[in-house]
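Proteins fold reproducibly. Take a tokenised chain:

. . .
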Amino acid sequence: MPSDSFVPINHSRSWRPGTVHEGVIEIAARMAKSDFKIPGMAFYATLANEAEEAAIEFASEAMEMLKGAEPDHTNALSNLRRAHHLHYAFPDELWMAAEQCESPIENILAAYLILEGTDGYNDLDYNPFWGAPSFPDPAWGTIWTIQHQFRRMRPDFLFKVCLEGENRFLAVECDGHDVHDGTKEQARRDRSRDWTLLTSGIPVIRFTEFEIVRDPQACVKDIISVLSGLCEDLLVKAGRVAPRRSGLRRGTEGLS
């Protein structure tokens, strides 16, 4: 859970081109002065550019959706919410994730989950306060957190797919060089850990440090694919049908 030392980015600033980029760089500079185990500033410079581009894309697409004889208010509002999130919440969530992460590669994956993560139907909801009474599970959607104790285990990332009281879980592990030395004993511990989670009904995805550093977005896509299947499982069980998201960042949300 985030500490009391967190000071959020100034939310009173109005949006203009460049503010999302500035917010990411500002929070990264703060994190660099802390004891957080984060990647270098070059990573955050790239992330800031991508977040800025995404915010502009969301806003532009929302305006286009409102044009014409039959404006698409639902998806326009959804894209405006995403642009708003990148401007006001994204930097703060990077900080909170950094407080929970135990390695730079976890921070890399967390950043892209916050930026691009969906479950195939809804944007992922990062919840550092998992389990707190004031943060109940969504009726429909997926929450996730980092380094959370769950069923005697503490996976690097834990996802909970929710649909009207029913849920499915997914664990994601990051195998870094500093923790995983590649020995037979480490491999045995990993298999034992994965088996414990699987027998508890929680599938596990493992990514190596090389995979995360080389292409974190590909890792996020793999997570999205599994979460989408878990969503479909719940929908079938409930006898419900939902329109699929048309892409990783946009589309119709909710149940029909």
Summary: The first strand starts at residue 125 and ends at 126.
